[in-house]
Structures are given as C-alpha cells and as structure tokens.
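Hi, can you check this record?
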Amino acid sequence: MIRLANWYFLLFIPLIIYIFIIKKNKTTLKFSSVKLLKSSGLKKTYKHKISKYMICLSLIILVVALSRPQLTSQPDTIQEKGIDIAMVLDVSGSMESVDFKPNRLEVAKKTIEDFVEERPSDRLALVIFAGTAYTRIPLTLDHNIVKQSLEEITTESVNDNGTAIGMAISVGLNRLKKSDSQSKVMILVTDGENNAGAIKPNTASDLAEELGIKIYTIGVGTDETIYPEVDIFGQTRYKRYEGGLDEELLKGIAEKTGGKYYRARDPQAMSKIFSDINELEKTKFDRDDFVQYKELAFDLIKVALILLLLGIFLDRYFYIQIP
C-alpha cells in the first residue's frame, strides 16, 4: 500500500502540463517561411518533441517525489518480553532529609533512573504522591519521557502535605488493572506513614491482591530524619527526629500481594534492592502498532534528474528546433 505524506504537492502537476504543452503550442513563434531549413533536410517530426516531453515528465516526477510517496507494510505484531511496572514515589517534604546525599528524593530518583535503563522491554508508569497522588506518566515503552519526568520531580510536585499511601496504591492500580501483561508489579518507595488520603492502605492492598498485582515496598532512610530548614538569617539549620516510617504497614502490603518488603538505609542498599527487583520473571506481550514506511522519494528524484539532464541535452544539442 502506498500513501502520500504531502499529497498537496500533486496540485502543481496540471500547472506543469499547461506550461510545457498547452501554452508552448500557443506561444510558438510564427515564421514567414521554414522552407530553407526543410530544404536542408531537417524535418519537424515527433522525435523533436521527445526532449520536451522528457523535461516535462521529469518535473512531474519531482513533484510526485515532493509529495513523499511511502510504501507501507501491513501492521505487524512484535512480540517482546517484559513486565508492566508502576513506580510509585513518595515526594513529601521528609524526602528532603539529608541522611542520604544529597537527599532521599534525589537518591531515589537516580536509582529509579538507573533501573529504567536496565528495563528496555518493560512498560513503565510513574506515580508520585504526598498528601494526594496522581499519575505523572501512564504505562509506556517511551522510557525517555519517564526519565525526563523524573528529573523534573521535586517535593513541590504535589501541593498537598502528608503521606497518602493508600491513595498512591490506588492510582498505581488504575495504571495496571487494564494491562494484558501476565506479570504486573508496583514498586512503592516511601519514607513515611499513611496520614492522608481517603483510601486506607489495607483497602488498596486488598484490591491489589484481587487484581493479582504484586507490590514491592521500599522503606527509605535511616532511623533519623534530618530535615534542613533556612532560618530568618538565611542560615540552614537541621531538624532531627526519629521514626516516621511505618514498616509494619509496608511489610503487610508486600506480604498480602505476594511482593516483598525492603529497607534501604543507604543509597547502596537502595541500588541493590532495585537490582533484586530487576531479576523478576519476564513475560511476553505483543505490540500490534508497528508499521514500517519505506520512502520512495529518493528513487523518484534519481529518475527525474536523469530524465531532466537527458531531455536538456537532446533539446539543446541533438535536435535542431524547427518552429
């Protein structure tokens, strides 16, 4: 099947035909007599018009080339291996704790970015949450857009304060529930306890269990949260407090859904956790939107240029024009 990407260029073809054939005949100069030329053996035959037709045809082919004809293949189905993963990232204020360098959120973003690099065949979604949750990126194989979105995330990406773990899981489930993949996984990264949102984490994890979606939970941070604050004199002071991470809740969510709970007390541990998850079972899925387009314009341009040069040569040097 052939399609034209810029079909409107074809509208110039009637104009070329008019200029080279119709108008040419009308504007032919009248001579009082061509007997002298004819007496010398030169006759006006159809061969003398070949050069003009060749030039005209070459221009028409060039116009067709401008319309970008493309030979399309039938939609093909590509079978790939991978799993569908929803990455659910806590961006609440406590993720600015500097017990990780430069802070928990930046380490989590970098670790997830490295994880994305190692999963080229997986479809990934990105959900962020604080006092509420929303989808940054739905399931996609375009990992560049996932990484770009990760770079833009800050603790101000969600306006509501708090940690809505139940809401975050629910939003992640919405991204995965329509997936045809046999293996659907959610990776929940948080350093807090559920204190916001209308949906309880246990309710959300029950639904995940029904949908067959594994949830891997990762508790981030040391036992002490070190939160930087700038005072009225412009100096940075650090507030320290212990606790804040509800490990029992995260363990319960993971166990109920068939996942696993991890504790990342330092950046190296977080990296190792994602490497462990990277070894998950892979499943096959089909992409049925793969269509190849073969550009025909370059071949047409070659033919047109050959005809054009040949036509000019015949017109100027081979045939003597007789009006």
